[in-house]
Amino acid sequence: MNRSELTQRILDPLLDGAMLTKEDALFLLQEGDGDLMRAAAHEIRNRKVNPKEVSYTGFRVVNYTNICKINCSYCSFKQNDGYTLTLDQIREKAQETKDLGMNQIFFQGGVNGSIPLTYYLEAISMLTEEMGMRVRGLSPVEIFHLAKKNKITIPQLLEELRDAGLTSVPGAGAEILTPHMREVLSPRKLSAEQWSEVMGMCHEKGLFGSANIVFGSVEEPCEIIEHFDVIRNQQDRTGGFLAFTSWTFQQQTEKFTVKNVQNSEYLKIVALSRLFFDNISNIEVSLMVRGKEVGKQALVSGANDISSYVVEENVLESFAPRSAAESEEVITSAGFIPVYRDFDYNRAR
Ligand code: SF4
Description:
There is one protein chain. The protein is an alpha/beta fold. It has a single domain, classed as Alpha-Beta Barrel (TIM Barrel), CATH 3.20.20.70. The chain contains 14 helices and ten strands. Helix 5 (about 115-130) links the parallel strand 3 (about 105-110) and strand 4 (about 135). The structure holds iron/sulfur cluster (SF4). Iron/sulfur cluster (SF4) binds next to loops.
């Protein structure tokens, strides 16, 4: 059998509803015919979500501090001048966001041990109660260290944050959840088990969010599949990942090796994520790191969402749309109907 026939032999059962095994996923990643994979991923996407529609959203990222003790090898964030935003500065950013017609804030920063818990609670309740914003925020590593510093359990912390108004926690900081890549990225970052455990606790407290991969470094292909498997298993246990997004690393520091990931490779991973995650409905493409043209191709390769347009970005070089109109233009020019949704994937307009 040739490569295309071997690929189709794996894809056919998936189109009949079977689950992709890790072994077959690794074959597809390394040897699979990308065109056939993308076509199958698109077909499965069309059965799971409205085939005519593509969703997007609008939120502003507020990086409340860039001071971080974790020291990830790829991260340049902490190398800038250290800052922690005051509540007034956060309020000002929220007001600017409101003035742009948006009501969602993505509240995230470094692991800064000098910030008291009251700061987080006051900031979140100010954003939600006073400013009328919805807040997705923090990440497993921030939550882990905040609970530890305050000598409370993670579920207790999550309840306090939820009571202050937090509604969602992103699965940020996952990158690639294997022991080898955790060592490369940062030995001080959470292990795969710790990351999964914190995300599971968030889901159990009703704080649903997303999951992602950031690839294109020194990972082995089997590590991509291991990462997918960690997330699929966690989703089977607690079900709170509303979407999965594929990102590629950008060169931010000299001590971290970044590969030039070809667009075809990226699209293959997007397709593979749709084929692998039978238990996650929404597959997002990262226009922010891959740009609009790749985004349009991803929309016929398994993806059904282009995430948010970007108002402020402090860490990465952004290729994303800068407004709702630009997002809609990307979607309509790819042949779909744009649908504005909120953090929770509810139609919001
Ligand atoms: S990626 Fe996050 S945890 Fe790692 S150093 Fe940067 S801010 Fe800290």
